[in-house]
Amino acid sequence: MIHTIRVHAEHEYDVVVGCDWQSILKDSIDSYTRVALVYSSAMRDHIKGFKPDNTEIHYFEVADGEGAKTSQSLQSLWNWLGAAGFTRSDAVVGIGGGTITDLAGFAAASWLRGIDWIAVPTTVAGMVDAAIGGKTGINSDYGKNLIGAFHSPQKVLIDTSWLTTLSDRDFAAGLAEVVKCGFIMDGKILDLVNGKGVAEIRGDASLVQDLITRSVAVKAHVVGSDFKESFGREVLNYGHTLGHAIEIHSKYSLRHGEAVSIGLIFAAELAGVKGLLDSKSIQLHKQILTSLGLPTTYPRDSWQHLYPLLALDKKSRGHQLRFVGLSAIGETLRIEDANESELAAAYERISS
Ligand SMILES: NC(=O)c1ccc[n+]([C@@H]2O[C@H](COP(=O)([O-])OP(=O)(O)OC[C@H]3O[C@@H](n4cnc5c(N)ncnc54)[C@H](O)[C@@H]3O)[C@@H](O)[C@H]2O)c1
């Protein structure tokens, strides 16, 4: 069954969950003269068969994973768009995980100061997070996602059949963002995943679709109320403050969602240290993320390296660290007054 969720951003657009991407994409690009399909080598075989009747398609293959989100990739895309004569009435389509939709969206944002683009996410993380919300960008030598633009797609087409080839590891990593949506806003998500492992979840197509639809609805709701990220949108960063530090510290050997999983437990423990969140809710974080096979601890002796990295978080203001916390399931708050010993105490509880 198809679910359509409307996102209210700088323009309104639909996220279509449960569709056949090829047929909807053909209809969606009918009015453009030229379309650039941006994909990585990993998706090549799936893209080849896509041949619409009326639109001129240009196939632009880029590196896989974070290798796509480089200034060199973007430069290549600009050159290809230029050589193919892309105008303001043409469009870009990004087909792939979050790395590809981030790159394709930013190429669309920057070409001729902004042309239309459509996202076809193929990972759980892309479907519930990266493709929705209008943040596009690439990495810099100084950190992830430092160069970018807010530029919402015209449409997001979610075809869950992509997920059959996704590794269990990437599937579980994407579920960390789904679980986050459960904790910050939609507690029903937690009921749906609690006690289940990845195999059980991915084996139940209607459950997968329900989880994706609910998570998209959470993101659409938050983005609609705060497109350019003041505190409203910051709730989506629940678990991400330590998560980002862990990503950097692990030199990206952990998936984003794996680092966020540890960060979610840390955020819950921090709220516990500050007397804001009860132990049952903290335990629920550990229980759900453990049964998904996601990491929930990090080495004790890494704290001295992680603590300085926390200051790089986008939510920090001056010397003040800010965390998104919970006072109950679905009740978010801002923690701005955590001192060094409280942070160390919370970290001690997630240390291995
Ligand atoms: N713009 C945003 O708001 C936002 C939000 C969250 C994450 N992100 C970004 O998204 C990226 C992470 O996204 P990701 O986890 O999708 O990573 P990814 O794009 O690197 O994909 C992970 C791996 O899965 C493979 N893959 C993709 N689809 C597949 C499929 N259907 N079957 C088999 N393999 C497949 C890819 O080739 C890749 O090797 C990060 O760069 C992150 O910064 C952006």
TrEMBL record:
GO MF entry, a single one: nucleotide binding
What residues does Zn(2+) bind to? E177, H240, H256
Q: What region holds the 3-dehydroquinate synthase N-terminal domain?
A: 61-172
Q: In which pathway does it act?
A: Metabolic intermediate biosynthesis; chorismate biosynthesis; chorismate from D-erythrose 4-phosphate and phosphoenolpyruvate: step 2/7
UniProt keyword annotations, A-Z: Amino-acid biosynthesis, Aromatic amino acid biosynthesis, Cobalt, Cytoplasm, Lyase, Metal-binding, NAD, Nucleotide-binding, Zinc
Give me any GO biological process, just one: chorismate biosynthetic process
Domain 3-dehydroquinate synthase C-terminal residues, every copy:
174-316
Per UniProt, NAD(+) binds at: D64, G65, E66, G67, A68, K69, T122, T123, K135, K144
The UniProt entry, under Pfam families, shows: DHQ_synthase, DHQS_C
What Gene Ontology terms describe where this protein resides (cellular component)? cytoplasm
Tell me the InterPro entries matching this sequence. Dehydroquinate_synthase, DHQ_synth_AroB, DHQ_synth_fam, DHQS/DOIS_N, DHQS_C
Primary location class: cytoplasm
To which protein family does this belong? Belongs to the sugar phosphate cyclases superfamily. Dehydroquinate synthase family.
HAMAP family, alphabetized: DHQ_synthase
- The name this protein goes by in its record: 3-dehydroquinate synthase
Q: Which organism is it from?
A: Candidatus Planktophila vernalis
The gene designation is aroB
